[in-house]
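Exercise: predict the fold of this chain.
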Amino acid sequence: MKTSSVEHFHVSLNTPAGQITSEVAVPTGFIPVTAIVPLMRSMGGQMQELEQGRAVDQGQVVSCQKGCAACCRMLVPLSAPEAFAFKQFYDQLPEERQRVLRSRIESSQARLHEAGLLAPLNDVAESQHLLTDETLEPLNRAYYALRMPCPFLEDEHCTIYEERPAACRELLVTSPPELCQDLTNPAIQALPVSVRISTTLGLLWAELTGTAERLIPLPVALDWALRHQEDRHRTWPGNELFDKLLDKVWRYLSQELHRRNTPGG
C-alpha cells in the first residue's frame, strides 16, 4: 500500500501571551480542508494555555470547571471547515449514537421553529454576504433568551467534548462562576483570545472558494454540511492549505497584538 508523503515544518509564533512552537507534518498531496482543522485546534490550544498561564500569574482564577455548562445555552457559530469536520465526526459514530443525536437535534430545531428562529439561523448559514456582529446580535440574544441546552449536552456534560467547536474551546471566564447564570451580564470577564479559530478558518475557506466569510450556527451545522457535500469533498495541495492558514494566523495575531498595545484597545 502506497503511503502519502509529508513535509515537516517548524512553526514559531509570537502571541500576546508568549511564543508557541509546533512541529507540523503536512501531506504533500491533495487534502480536504477538514485535514487542517486539527492543526488549527492544536495551535489555538497552545495559545489558550499561554493566556491561562498569564492570567494565573496575574492572580486570576479560571472559573470554568467540568460540569459547568452555563455557556451551553448560547448560540455557537462554526466556520465551514469546522462544520465539515463535525459532519465527518458524526458520520463515524455508531448508528445508534447517530440516531440519539439526530433526535436531540430535531427536538432543538422544532423548538427553534416554534420561536421563529430556525429560518433565520439557516439564512445566516447560507448568507452570501459577511454578517456583522451588530447584525447578528438580536439573533444571538433571542436564542439565548430560550435558555435551550445545546443538543449535544447531556446531564450538563458535553458529549462531543473532543470535537466541540472552537467557540466553545475559547470561552473561559475569570469572573465568579455565579455571574454566568446571565451571560449578558457586563461584569463577566472572559479570558482574551490570541487567535479566533473559527474566524481564521472562515477566512481561509472564503479565500479558497471565492465566497463570503460565513459562520454556521451549530443547531443547523450538520444539515448545512449535508447540503454542501460537494464542497466538503473538495481538495487542495497540502502545502497550499498550510501556507494560506499560516497567513491568516499571522494577520490575526498582528491585529490582536496591535489592539492590545493600543491604549483603550
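Check your answer against the key: The CA atoms of residues 46 and 121 lie 32 Å apart.
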